[in-house]
């Protein structure tokens, strides 16, 4: 029997930018936040060699990933070795030393990570989409800017951790481990750095457009407006609308040809394309719209056809059958996502970090069932009437500007 445990905290690129920089050289907080994602450095309780070999010796694993709102340190092991891996988890989250030579050696890896990620056009489009949509906070990139690589110091990282890795900003979550054991660990170690940490400002949606011209034959484009925050009444309505329009293939190697977006665009072009509704929810904001990929010469007709499908939904072109089908798809997607230990751990941790509670899957399903056709139409109306944001990359000669849509 294996257990999984994780320590979650708000990601620095989101939280730190919501406060003034206290250091005289005003470092970029989102530049600093990428380095803690690499947990291979020495800590006060264990060297990087000991952490690596210690986890390896018990057949465990330690992984770290970061989103725009949280950073998750996750360990997995057999139940007999909980104490061992928890020691290492707590070391990398509460006691990093950031030795100068280790920080220097690690920074070139940031270039590698970024280069690999940006081989996918989707990464660049989504980065630009958030930069265009928001003024601060959520506008910050997930990847360290090139001008900051090689200039991040150990002192900056210590300052960042001291102000962001505090007990009030962390959640310790476990699956397959006793609650009493986790509570004991939290009370013993996670109070080392007590306090609320940095204060958080609200994400400010502004709307805008970023176009990245390249010679690529495919155009990737996303058009969104401000959606709904996590836990709000509108969030489920936007999620149902996403599945009404088409949220991508529902089975392995499946297609999206039955979705409203796909069928609507297929009437406007005979060229290959792909399109799906885009919906993301954050703690105090969200984005909703669509993402389309098309041949450069036909980008305009694909994007306009996708817009027309959303306008049709806002005008009531959504049937009860469409809504029922979409709700079933949404419930299935959610319930299957929490069937795995990793998915459940992430779900519990994200909710605990945001609200300090956890909603049972059955309750989530009931809330989805309560969404009405009117709610879905109102969500579509909000997209149509809302201030838009757009990001596009590729050969953009035939890609319309935002004010032309």
UniProtKB/TrEMBL annotation:
Query: Which Gene Ontology terms cover its molecular function?
Result: metal ion binding
What species was this sequence derived from? Meleagris gallopavo (Wild turkey)
The residues forming the signal peptide are: none
Provide GO CC annotations from the record. mitochondrion
Q: What is this protein called?
A: Uncharacterized protein
Domain Peptidase M16 C-terminal: start-end pairs = 151-330
Query: Where's the Peptidase M16 N-terminal domain?
Result: 42-146
Tell me the domain of life: Eukaryota
A Pfam family matched in the record:
Peptidase_M16_C
